[in-house]
Every structure is written in structure tokens, then in C-alpha cells.
């Protein structure tokens, strides 16, 4: 499988790529990190949090991920002690800032699924907080979600079986709202504490130094960045080859139900390899961004603008006039893996809620249906990835 994929990956960069391309990329990402940090502080936090502060936090995460991923892929041309010290700190920043957004998105996904499964109307508008993490930490705007579920339930005209599911869905929605809003509030407090900690200030100081000086090794003067980028591609291809794509080639995977009723709260055993492929695909894309910067496609229009400023929050951008995506063929594959991750985490949240002691049978039943629905979404995402990988990536040559 490795042969066919190499064409669209390495084709646009025919010649050697000097380490200075990596240095310029890291300086741009460090500049974007510092700009996002300043915007986050100006936008305010806590009760004064605004949509601008949420966007700034997302920009911080994007820059931290790209710097950390580049340090991992191109570690051979970077100072090893500095690189090994920076990577876990940047991963800590990105992971801490991601928790609040993950809780908000998970709650919205599960409430929408409950409405769909119970036959009610689509989830009503909930204000800024209902659309994502822009509503701040308190979750007050989201507190209307379970009430909306309850209000719409009696108006549903359905068979007796679906009626009982609708009642259970209302209680399940209220339970999920309490649990995930609490988790979101805690994640917001954790993020605020992290951004004000001495640990984060130390990371920001190192990133500020990186914006002007990249610690390359003496061997970097004659190094070519294409081999480490190719190694990142090969790790991705090997990981995809190890996936059960034959099983994923069918829209229904009966093997995925083998552990569906297990009391073990650990993540589903089939999900880990797919999550790993998603991370490797991200590293591969960041390596391509470095190579494309060297080719001049990313910096042609605005040489001084950071690359991250034109990258959307999704894993793979859909359109970037000044900086086209390195490999459009990977767009659908990356989106499928994002949906897989979201559905997997949502199913785990439903299963966790179903383990709440002394809940009503109708509530437990609704949560079980919700868990099965999200596992079905997991299988659909795997099927979409398989189709995209086989048809778009391999079939393009």
C-alpha cells in the first residue's frame, strides 16, 4: 500500500528541502501562538469570556499541536534536549485547552441524537453556548437544553413504544446535561488555572524565544527534510494497513458488538488503532505543511503571515486561497476519522451515564439506545474512511 500513496504526497516537492523551511514554519507557528495568547487575555475569561476568547483558545491549540507535531517529525534536525522538553509541555497545553470544547461538542451531539431517536424536532437553538464552547464556562445557556427536550416530548405523536422512549430521552438528556456541564465547568476552571500557572508561563517564554530563534543541530545545514516527512507518511500507511479495512468495508460490523455489554468502563478495544491513525494522519499533514512552505505555495501571498492564521479549526481545511491544503485527497479521510473520534467519545459518555446508580428503567433504556446509535456512527465513520482511503487516495493514481 505504501507505493501508491507516495505519489500525491511527495510529488509537489521535487527537490531537497533545507532545514530553514522548518525553522521558518516553527517561527510562524510560535508567532501565531503568542498572538492568540494576547487575544485570549484581551478577550477576558471567566464570567467575561467571549467568543473571541474561545477562538483565541482554539488558535492556541492549533499552534501548540503544529509545533509539537513538527518537533516529533523533524527531531533529527533539532536540538534533542530542547525538543524533548518542549513536546510534552505543548501537548499538555493543547490537551488542557481541548477538554472544555470536547465536553460542549459531546453534549450537543448527544442531545441532537436523543431528539432524532425520539422522533422530536431538531434541537432548538440554545444561544451561543448551544452552538459550541462560546457561551463560557457556566453552562447557564445550556441548562435550557433538557427543558427543551422535556417540553417537546409530550407533543410527540408516536406509538406507545416510541412514547416511552421519548420520556426516557427527556430524563436521559437531563442526566447527560448535568454530567457534561459539570465536566465542562471543571475543564474550564482547569484551563484557567493552567493559563495562569508558572508552568504555562514557562512554556510561553520558550515559545517566545522560538519565535526568533530555532535551536537547530549543526547537521541541519546539510539536512534534507523530505526523508523524515516520508517516514511520517510510512508510519501512517503502515497503521492504515493494520486496520481491519475488510471489516470496515461493510456498513455493519457485528464484531464491534462483542464488548457492547461489558462492565469494563475502559475505551472500546476496537477504537484505539483508529485513533492512532487519526494522530498519524495529523502528523503527516503537518509535515506536508512544512514541505509546502519550502515550495513557496503557503507563503507566496503573505510571506510574513503565520500559516495557522489561514487554517480552520477542523483537522483538514476545506479552502485556503493563500495557502492551499497540502493534499486534498486526504480531506475526506481526515473528516471521517474526526467523526469516528467524536462518535466514540459520545458513546462512552452515554455508557458512563447509564452506569449512574438508581436511574429509571426508561432512562437506562434511552441511554442504551443512544449508546448503540453512537456505535453505529462509529461504524459509519469507519466505512466512510475505508471508502475514502481506497477510492480517493489509492484510486487517484
TrEMBL record:
<feature type="compositionally biased region" description="Low complexity">
    <location>
        <begin position="140"/>
        <end position="158"/>
    </location>
</feature>
<feature type="domain" description="CHAD">
    <location>
        <begin position="15"/>
        <end position="394"/>
    </location>
</feature>
<feature type="compositionally biased region" description="Gly residues">
    <location>
        <begin position="129"/>
        <end position="139"/>
    </location>
</feature>
<dbReference type="InterPro" id="IPR007899">
    <property type="entry name" value="CHAD_dom"/>
</dbReference>
<protein>
    <submittedName>
        <fullName>CHAD domain-containing protein</fullName>
    </submittedName>
</protein>
<dbReference type="InterPro" id="IPR038186">
    <property type="entry name" value="CHAD_dom_sf"/>
</dbReference>
<dbReference type="Pfam" id="PF05235">
    <property type="entry name" value="CHAD"/>
</dbReference>
<feature type="region of interest" description="Disordered">
    <location>
        <begin position="128"/>
        <end position="158"/>
    </location>
</feature>
Amino acid at each position: 500500500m505504501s507505493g501508491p500513496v507516495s505519489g500525491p504526497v511527495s510529488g509537489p516537492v521535487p527537490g531537497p528541502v533545507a532545514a530553514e523551511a522548518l525553522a521558518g514554519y516553527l517561527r510562524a507557528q510560535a508567532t501565531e501562538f503568542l498572538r492568540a495568547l494576547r487575544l485570549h487575555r484581551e478577550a477576558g475569561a471567566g464570567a467575561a469570556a467571549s467568543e473571541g476568547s474561545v477562538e483565541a483558545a482554539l488558535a492556541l491549540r492549533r499552534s501548540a499541536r503544529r509545533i509539537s507535531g513538527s518537533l516529533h517529525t523533524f527531531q533529527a534536525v533539532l536540538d534533542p534536549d530542547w525538543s524533548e522538553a518542549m513536546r510534552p509541555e505543548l501537548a499538555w497545553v493543547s490537551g488542557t485547552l481541548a477538554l472544555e470544547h470536547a465536553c460542549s461538542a459531546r453534549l450537543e451531539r448527544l442531545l441532537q441524537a436523543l431528539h432524532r431517536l425520539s422522533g422530536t424536532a431538531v434541537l432548538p437553538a440554545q444561544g451561543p453556548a448551544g452552538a459550541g464552547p462560546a457561551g463560557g464556562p457556566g453552562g447557564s445557556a445550556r441548562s435550557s437544553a433538557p427543558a427543551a427536550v422535556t417540553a417537546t416530548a409530550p407533543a410527540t405523536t408516536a406509538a406507545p413504544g416510541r412514547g416511552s422512549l421519548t420520556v426516557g430521552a427527556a430524563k436521559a438528556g437531563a442526566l447527560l446535561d448535568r454530567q457534561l456541564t459539570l465536566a465542562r465547568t471543571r475543564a474550564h476552571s482547569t484551563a484557567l488555572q493552567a493559563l495562569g500557572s508558572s508552568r504555562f508561563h514557562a512554556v510561553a517564554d520558550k515559545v517566545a524565544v522560538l519565535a526568533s530563534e530555532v535551536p537547530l543541530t549543526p547537521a541541519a545545514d546539510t539536512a534534507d527534510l523530505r526523508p523524515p516527512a516520508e517516514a511520517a507518511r510510512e508510519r501512517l500507511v503502515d497503521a492504515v494497513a493494520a486496520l481491519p479495512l475488510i471489516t470496515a468495508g461493510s456498513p455493519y460490523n457485528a464484531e464491534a458488538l462483542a464488548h457492547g455489554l461489558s462492565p469494563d468502563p475502559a475505551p472500546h478495544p476496537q477504537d484505539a488503532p483508529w485513533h492512532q491513525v487519526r494522530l498519524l494522519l495529523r502528523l503527516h499533514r503537518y509535515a506536508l505543511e512544512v514541505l509546502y512552505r519550502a515550495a513557496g505555495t503557503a507563503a507566496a501571498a503573505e510571506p510574513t503571515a503565520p500559516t495557522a492564521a489561514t487554517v480552520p479549526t477542523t483537522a483538514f481545511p476545506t479552502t485556503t486561497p493563500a495557502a492551499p491544503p497540502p493534499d486534498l485527497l486526504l480531506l475526506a479521510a481526515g473528516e471521517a476519522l474526526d467523526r469516528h473520534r467524536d462518535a466514540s467519545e459520545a458513546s462512552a459518555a452515554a455508557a458512563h451515564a447509564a452506569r449512574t446508580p438508581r436511574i429509571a428503567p426508561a432512562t437506562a433504556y434511552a441511554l442504551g439506545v443512544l449508546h448503540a446509535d453512537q456505535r453505529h456512527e462509529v461504524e459509519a465513520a469507519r466505512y466512510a474512511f475505508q471508502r475514502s482511503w481506497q477510492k480517493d487516495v489509492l484510486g487517484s493514481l
